[in-house]
Automatic annotation (TrEMBL), chain A:
Protein name per UniProt: ABC transporter ATP-binding protein
Domain of life assignment: Bacteria
UniProt GO cellular component terms: ATP-binding cassette (ABC) transporter complex, substrate-binding subunit-containing
Record field: transmembrane: none
Residues in ABC transporter domain copies: 3-233
Keywords: ATP-binding, Nucleotide-binding, Transport
Pfam families hit by this protein: ABC_tran, TOBE_2
N-terminal signal peptide: none
PROSITE patterns found in the cross-reference section: ABC_TRANSPORTER_1 (PS00211), ABC_TRANSPORTER_2 (PS50893)
InterPro entries, per the entry: AAA+_ATPase, ABC_transporter-like_ATP-bd, ABC_transporter-like_CS, ABC_transpr_MalK/UgpC-like, Mo/tungstate-bd_C_term_dom, NA-bd_OB-fold, P-loop_NTPase, Transp-assoc_OB_typ2
Molecular function GO labels: ABC-type transporter activity; ATP binding; ATP hydrolysis activity
Length: 368, 274
């Protein structure tokens, strides 16, 4: 079942939590709603669930307009951050609960619940109470409960936030596996960019209630529609430097610095903001260098070496080859391939190599 | 180590003193109920009767129709407790989970009534009931006690502590408000409900002032009222009164021993938030 959102808007008093959100979620896809806290992603999920009613706009499940339909009639399953299991019921009874509410006969409900418990690999725990389970196990129960009534749509509200790092990784893969196995359309809310990029078919990035970009994860990472998207994705975050055009062809001056850098692309603008991903930057020789500066910080975490290079008043983060012989206090030349440089409008943050539309995929086709 | 042993001893001594003080009247009641009339008022006090007069108990039951009083007490206690259970659950749910106009003001007014001493309300309540024509009926004994602001307050606080996501989850799972209340909230609030209703049973069983005000006929008297039958112009037959009192208290004692955990929790909880 496809899900269409048409100019969905939700206002709380004077705050627009969701602002004219329009998109299509294709059948069987797992889509992430990503954004900083307060961006409207959870509100969007509540609207989809029918737990909130929108101020304006419409929601369609397939052909059916469900905007005014109550949550209990929408045939959705939902998983919450704090699991929201019924503490007084056993695991089995928790999973059976939605079926019992649908008046499914007890025997059939039990069979289906056990089958679902097996799918999420908690078949051996069905007689326990939720309080006797670990966080990861509780979340599995919550997923089983959400899926047992065969909903048309699965909604997950930050389902991994309460788990520890290792478990989060494991459950993230589990959610993807279960979603694929059941073949259900799923919407996954998270503030963790890594989570969103790793498990979704598509990512919808929101800020202040407005959908910023709606595209497949890799496309969003490589071709951010604006500087917000660029800065939200990636760890360590993308480096931004502001440059001013000079009289010399292809030469730009770094703001707050006397250095000139060479850009292959000619942008018809006085000032622009450049985005450089730390992993694209490398140490090089003087001829190839984009900039030259002093290493002010160096740390090695596992297989990565992160350095900070100070170019006058500008600091650049770079992930470099750990074998590089370099020390804090030394001067170094850093380079980047020209095609890895992103250009942003300094005022509105728009990616100058893309249009300025919200529809990422339509844009991609134009550029191809 | 020495210090803690010392303080522990002190604590036990103080607690034991308290326990003795609390038990003394009770022991006196039992002892009096088994005395001959001449030993009741004897000086110095007689603790152990010289002759164990068990016949006091059968004698006491003959003074008034205690079987009738017992049935009345049971009816009043059970019906008013069930009534209170229903009103409490519904009201607490409304005040904690449903948004409606003037909700918080209405709740504040309700809480305000807790500050009015109950004695002040005796006369207005009596007037109301007599206008309704309910004086000397079961309705008068029961209906005014089927709602308790304290119980609503306690349960509302308990409900507020139950995470909101649970109601979201239940809605998504296909629950209406009422089903959610019935299948999720009420079972979750079981400890609080048991506590509240136990206190209710005890109060209802022991109620004296209200039944004596609103009933005139023998057939509607409850046990505590019935005990006044031992007070006559000729004086009070203490040994019979104490025998009857022991019997009246007995069901509550059993209840207390079974439900001790909840009663203690209830008393402790009233001093705490939620």
């Amino acid at each position: 079942m496809d899900v269409y959102l048409d100019n969905l808007t939700m206002e709380f008093q004077d705050i627009k939590a969701v602002d004219r959100l329009s998109t299509t979620i294709k059948d069987g896809q797992l889509v992430s709603l990503l954004g900083p806290s307060g961006c409207g992603k959870s509100t969007t999920l509540m609207l989809l669930a029918g737990l909130y009613k929108p101020t304006s706009g419409d929601i369609y499940f397939g052909e059916q307009n469900v905007t005014k339909l109550d949550a209990e009639k929408r045939e959705i399953g939902m998983v919450f951050q704090n699991y929201a299991l019924y503490p007084h019921l056993s695991v089995l009874k928790n999973i059976m609960f939605p079926l019992r509410m649908q008046k499914v006969p007890k025997k059939e409900a039990k069979e289906r619940a056990i089958e679902m418990a097996e799918l999420v690999q908690i078949g051996h725990l069905i007689d326990r109470k939720p309080g006797q389970l670990s966080g990861g196990q509780q979340q599995r129960v919550a997923i089983a409960r959400a899926l047992v009534k065969k909903p048309k749509l699965l909604l997950l509200d930050e389902p991994l936030s309460n788990l520890d790092a290792r478990l989060r990784l494991e459950m993230r893969e589990e959610i993807r596996r279960i979603q694929q196995e059941v073949g259900i359309t799923a919407i996954f809310v998270t503030h963790d960019q890594e989570e969103a990029l790793s498990i979704s078919d598509r990512v919808m990035l929101m800020k202040n209630g407005i959908l910023q970009q709606d595209s497949p994860p890799q496309d969003m990472y490589r071709n951010p529609i604006n500087s917000f998207t660029a800065s939200f994705l990636g760890n360590p975050p993308i480096n931004f430097i502001k440059v001013t055009k000079t009289d010399q062809q292809g030469k730009y001056k770094i703001m707050n610095s006397s250095q000139l850098i060479h850009l292959a692309k000619d942008i018809d603008m006085g000032q622009i903001q450049l985005g450089l991903r730390p992993e694209n930057i490398y140490i090089t020789n003087k001829e190839d260098a984009l900039m030259t500066g002093e290493v002010v910080h160096l740390e090695t975490i596992g297989r990565d070496t992160l350095i900070r290079v100070k170019i006058d008043d500008v600091t650049i983060r770079a992930l470099i080859d750990p074998a590089t012989d370099i020390h804090v206090g030394e001067r170094c030349h850093i380079g980047i391939k020209q095609e890895h440089i992103r250009y942003f409008n300094i005022e509105n943050g728009a990616n100058l190599e893309r249009g300025n539309s919200h529809d990422g995929q339509a844009n991609m086709e134009k550029h191809a | 180590m020495v210090k803690s042993a010392l303080s522990r001893t002190t604590i036990y001594i103080l607690l034991s003193l308290g326990a003795v003080l609390m038990l003394l009247p009770f022991v006196w009641m039992i002892s009096t109920s088994l005395k001959a009339p001449n030993e009741v008022m004897a000086m110095p006090p007689v603790w152990v009767p010289s002759e164990w007069k068990f016949e006091n108990f059968t004698e006491a039951l003959k003074v008034a129709p205690f079987d009738r009083y017992f049935i009345n007490s049971v009816i009043v206690t059970i019906v008013s407790t069930i009534g209170e259970l229903i009103t409490t659950i519904l009201a607490a749910y409304a005040f904690s989970r449903i948004q409606f106009f003037g909700r918080d003001i209405a709740f504040a007014v309700l809480l305000g009534t807790m500050m009015v001493p109950s004695e002040v309300l005796l006369i207005p309540n009596f007037v109301t009931l007599s206008n309704l024509g309910w004086i000397d009926t079961y309705s008068a004994l029961i209906v005014p006690w089927t709602a308790s602001v304290f119980a609503i307050f306690l349960l509302r606080q308990y409900f507020l502590g139950i995470p909101k996501e649970l109601s979201f989850a239940a809605k998504v799972d296909g629950c209406s408000e009422f089903k959610f209340l019935w299948y999720v909230m009420a079972p979750l609030a079981k400890p609080a409900l048991i506590t509240v209703e136990l206190l209710k049973v005890i109060n209802s069983w022991n109620a004296f002032l209200w039944p004596i005000i609103v009933t005139n006929s023998q057939e509607l008297r409850t046990l505590p009222v019935g005990l006044s039958a031992f007070t006559t112009e000729a004086g009070i037959k203490y040994e019979l009164l104490m025998a009857a009192s022991s019997m009246v208290i007995f069901p509550m004692l059993i209840l207390f021993f079974i439900m001790q955990k909840y009663i203690v929790a209830g008393v402790a909880r009233t001093g705490l938030k939620g």
